[in-house]
Amino acid sequence: MFGIGRQCNRTLSLASRIASGSRLSHTLPAINQTGLSAASQNELSELLGQPEVAGQIVNGRSFLPAYYHPRTHNVPVALIHFRSYHISLLNLFTHFASHAASALAIPISKTIPLPTQRSLWTVPRSPFVHKTSQENFERRTHKRVIKAWDADDEVVERWIKYLEAHPLAGVGFRVDRLVLDMQTKKTRSAEKVKELGEKIVERELAAAAASAQKSAETIVKSS
């Protein structure tokens, strides 16, 4: 029990440090090996934000913001909703999910905050004649969402499986896949276009038959 408590405290401490934007200089041994130890923090952020190194393993990258790949076709493929009672843990896991998507070259949005859900309960402190003495409890559910675009189904599935394989206690997430809905819309639109085309063809054939009949009647009358 005490070990779990210490681990939770370390997780909350790490989450608060990432949320506050703190950086650790001694967590970049891979950068020092490349001769960039004298680079400033801005130059280092620009280097790790390049798409050429976005999928590589670099120590210390997790303390920097994730690289957001540009969208190519603006086709939404997935929505991931995150929920937690602890905002520090929620920010930590969304930061982790953003880095995972960046490593897989999935164009995603930045973490979008949603309205906080507030729940209130009022319970009596004691029964019988003292039931008028009541106590109030409050629970706040913090929510975030990340939207993904222009990624293959297998890549998105691998991203989701990776998040499911590395969960964070106290944070839940739900995935809404948009591929099936888009395929359904495309199928419906194709069916509508086909139906409209058939109606146009029938109308043109009927008009052509009517004009041919009129011309035939005119020839018969003239003869």
From TrEMBL:
InterPro entries noted in UniProt: Ribosomal_uS10 (IPR001848), Ribosomal_uS10_dom (IPR027486), Ribosomal_uS10_dom_sf (IPR036838)
Family annotation (Pfam families): Ribosomal_S10
Ranges of residues in domain Small ribosomal subunit protein uS10: 79-176
Molecular function terms, GO-annotated: structural constituent of ribosome
Keywords annotated in UniProt: Ribonucleoprotein, Ribosomal protein
Gene3D superfamilies assigned to the protein according to its UniProt record, in alphabetical order: Ribosomal protein S10 domain
Biological process according to GO: translation
Family recorded in the similarity comment: Belongs to the universal ribosomal protein uS10 family.
Quaternary state and interactors: Part of the mitochondrial small ribosomal subunit.
Function: Involved in mitochondrial genome encoded proteins translation. Involved in the binding of tRNA to the ribosomes.
Protein name as it appears in the record: Small ribosomal subunit protein uS10m
Organism of derivation: Cerrena zonata
Lineage, broadest ranks: Eukaryota, Fungi, Dikarya, Basidiomycota, Agaricomycotina
